[in-house]
Records
---
Amino acid sequence: MGIVIGVVGPHDLVDEVAATCEEQLGVSALRLDYDHESQAPAIVEAHAASVEGWLFTGIVPYMLARDADVLSRPASFVDYSGATLLSALVRLQHEGQDVTRLSIDTLAPADIVATFAEAGLPTEEIRTLPYRQGMSSKKAVAFHRRGREHAVVTCLSSVHEALRGEMHVLRLAPSVHSVRVALRQLLLSAEGQAQEDAQIALGLIEVESEEGLLREAAALGGTLAAFRGGTHLLVTTRGPLSDATGGFSSLPMLSRLASHNQVVRVGFGLGRSAAEAESLARRALARARRIGEVAAVLSLRADTDIVLESVTAAPAGGKSLNVIARRVGLSVPTLEKLIEARAAVGDEPLTTREIAERLGVQQRTARRMLHRLELSGLAERTGNLSSGSSGRPLTMYRLTL
């Protein structure tokens, strides 16, 4: 049995995003399109029982559904910054537009500045209208009309429809890479909700030569042993695996082993017990074999698999807070507060309650933040502490930001 993802967005984006989701083994998509983003909360409420998670084609329908408090399932949205915005700049330049004078809605100013810096472009004459609670398409249209000398870049289909007859307007569409990143985050969130205590990670590795295997196992904080049929067994835990794979996105050891092996196949299973993890690892390896000679797959429960890319993930410690913030979906000020909290306690773990108090948020919000950091290898779950009441135990985390 697979996992059903509800894909919510305008009709001309839903099919494309859903098709990319269904490339992932074990994923089926329920296509739910709207005529206007304001319809997103009603769509979510009507179909909540039919899905295990929600993927929105952009941040606006996601925020509308979240603010309406109708998200009872894990949810994620496709980020339009980075590669998506860069490709839009190239297109605008080909259309003869001045890309240093744009009017951009929805995206965070920090993300826009970071993308323009990567492209070597100035931002002094870029007008921005970041998404805020209560922002409507009418407000966005009025904002763009006040800067008529600027070409418009919008994330909203309703704004594009309103302005395309009077201004040069380009509507951002999600890139395949951005959809895959959002889907990966969603699948891991859904798995985390269903199985918060899944900590054991087992890997089954097929290679022609053992050269470098012990070194790779040590880098994953694990141990290596011979397995049946010439396969090698790598035993580790969720935290080190998440850290080494950049939040379960890429497996750098794949390309390193492929440099002196024609065949490198890796199957990881993440489970609550060694038996469950081994069963999932077998399934992952079988699916890696079907992909090709060099492939890695991480298998979760509910017949859900994540294909790990072979590109090397840059270490989080070398990235700016802006880059980390985009990766984990938290603001820079929040990350700064978390860094202060870590500095205050040194290497000691903090409870979810302590984190919530330091950030001034509810405990459930703190749990969501810490889960995102854990998936990205920036926090490590160290155990539970009784809350002293009949409520759920307090999870303890060691921050590694």
---
Amino acid sequence: MNSDATLDIAIIGGGIIGICVAAYLAEAGRNVTIFDRTGICEETSSGNAAALAFSDVLPLAHKGMIRHLPKWLADPLGPFSIPPPYLPKLLPWLIRFWRAGRNDRYEASLGAQARMMRLAEAEWAGLMARSGAGNMLREDGSLELYESEAEFKASLPGWAARQRFGIGFSHVEGDALVALQPGLSPRFVKGTFVPGWKTVTDPKLLGKAIWTFAEKNGARFEKARIDHVGAAQHGATLTLADGTVRQAKRLVIAAGAWSHLLAKQIGDRIPLETERGYNTTLPKTAFDVKRQLIFPGHGFVITPLETGVRVGGAVELGGIERPPNYARSKALLDKAQKFLPGLDPAGGREWMGFRPSLPDSLPVIGGARHAGTIVYAFGHGHLGLTQAAATGRLVRDLILGQNPVFDLSPFSPNRF
């Protein structure tokens, strides 16, 4: 292709958000080109916990996070950590996060997230059917686990909030708990089973399947790092790492944890931080995990995949420059062995990814403040896979000039 030709729609970011945006726009007959420095679904979207967490409507600041913070921060390998040298840079974000947890903001955030999740579930069902990826969906539910009666009771307000939005669940104990996951440590006295919780067989394989569908509809990929973006009179400019300048009529920024750096070049300051998540993927023979197991008191999950057993989660707010601290993934694996005493920890593959997170747990979906040809689609935190199809639908509607299916003001880039 002639590099001087003006692109119809350029998307920066080949993760699951960019892939789904490309799929929806290509279906609508638009010419789409994705730019990514590594490839399609090769970075953070490749190694997540594989959940389609449609019932996960509680903003992070409301999940008991504030209550647990002092205890967790005291443990450098615990569920929530901040490298001390990074704390001064992080403080403004933490203040916004604390404010997002206030009761006066609770209902608005909860309602917006619930609407997003309803759309996400419907859009994923349709996209999987159209792309032929439906065989990658698992509908085994999830099991959230508690080590004490006090921990269980502390979870009840959150479950009551979910119930208001029609999310089904049942609390279990004793034989019912054992039946849902044989071999579980007796330290867990109660659990909550969510039958509507879904997972995928492998998030990387799903992303590549959706991209194959987008390609069949004409979407293209260019391997390139974008160093600079700018608003042009009739579109946007992209400056590649090799100095090449490309023009596009419309631009979508879906570059995950790097997106705010590009938005800043256009004049938008968006308070995005990076939840660095760790996991270890063990061989499939490591343990017979029946469904995704969630350990809220420890901030991690165990997921059965087609390609192995994935043990991971936790939050390290440490930006995008610091090297990985794989002692965190080892600590999670040690806990997993205690929680599933028969788990074989051998042969694992460690991984770290960057979750792009905003203080109120809602993504940014909308136009740049001073550039109507540029659309943002980032900041989904640990819900990128879950909300990707909904984001693809919403961005498509924005670019095509169609009315969105619900009010997008809670997701506005200008809300901060």
